[in-house]
Amino acid sequence: xxxxxxxxxxxxxxxWTGALERTFTDHxxxxxxPARISRVDRGRCTAITASGPTRATFAAPHPPDPLLTPCTGxxxxxxxxxxxxxxxxxxxxxxxxxxxxxxxxxxxxxAANVDTVVIxxxxxxxxDAAKLERLLALAWESGAQPVVALTKADLADDAEAVRAEAExxxxxxxxxxxxxxxxxxxxxxxxxxxxxxxxLGPSGAGKSSLANTLLGEELLATGTVREQDGKGRHTTVRRxxxxxxxxxxxxxxxxxxxxxxxxxxxxxxxxxAEIEDLAxxxxxxxxxxxxxxxxxxxxxxxxxxxxxxxxxxYRKLQREAAWAASRADARLRDERVSQQKAITSxxxxxxxxxxxxx
Length: 358
Description:
It is a single chain. The chain is α/β, with parallel strands linked by helices. Among the domains are: 11-91, CATH 2.40.50.140; 96-252, 3-Layer(aba) Sandwich (Rossmann fold). The protein has helices at residues 18-23, 25-29, 129-142, 159-169, 186-192, 207-215, 265-271, 273-279, 296-302, 308-357, and strands spanning 33-41, 44-49, 52-58, 75-79, 85-89, 95-99, 107-112, 116-122, 145-151, 174-177, 196-200, 240-243, 249-252. The protein has a six-stranded mixed sheet with strand order 10-9-8-11-13-12, with helices on both faces. Strands 1-2-3-5-4 form a five-stranded mixed beta barrel. The protein is flat, with a radius of gyration of 24 Å.
């Protein structure tokens, strides 16, 4: 008998929907229960089920692949019992993926099934345009909607000037000047959050303080920053998912020191939309925007309508994303070759065994 969706007040608080319920039919028939992963550490995870949180084990994928490893925000099929075990992950609707810290061809999933990405940057230090562009590319590529929260407005000399600068770098995203200390624009920020929200940003940006304010209680540890450079220690050491009082959930993340892109071509097109638009008016379809005649991008730079730094940043991030994509393609080719060799070896062994039996 088909399982019906009868739990609007349990997992619904964490984002469970009728559409997810329908994909879970076969898992129900196998005796599994739905769960959302709220935290992953040391080969185990904390999973939220309709009856509450539980600690569960999971098997690492083979061959190892961070993209297939359970992550905060994932929906999963859980085998309940004395030792709950995560059996399978449900397909992700979105994922925030950066290149792994080891610079391998694998990507690292920071959070899964995300609807809103809040990029937190402190107004107590000068705006880092390149860092904001990277974070925006990461957010747009995931399929989520980015929101830029400029924090610590109470420590800023000219918050509105920085906001205007950030808006020019973030087409399509809302940019808000906020302050946890004074409560400035906190309600406005909360009103922009939809579904599952993840907080991204460098250490010292005040992410945990902002998260506690949005959550309505002190659930996350906070720390101080160094006065000389505005940087802080990692007070958040792992990603964790918590329900928001107004609905939806929030994922706080450790501060990002490295923000290497992983196959983020679509995200870059959104971040640098003005360059993409200008390129459509270049005389040549394959214009490299260097010294070609009739280049609309170079004309905009000469007219002062487009900062040259912006084009340099676009090219740098394009090269980085293309390199990551090529590494991933090469790895997939190698894996296919290895799989074919294993199949061939198995067939040869089978044939030898058959011949020996004759």
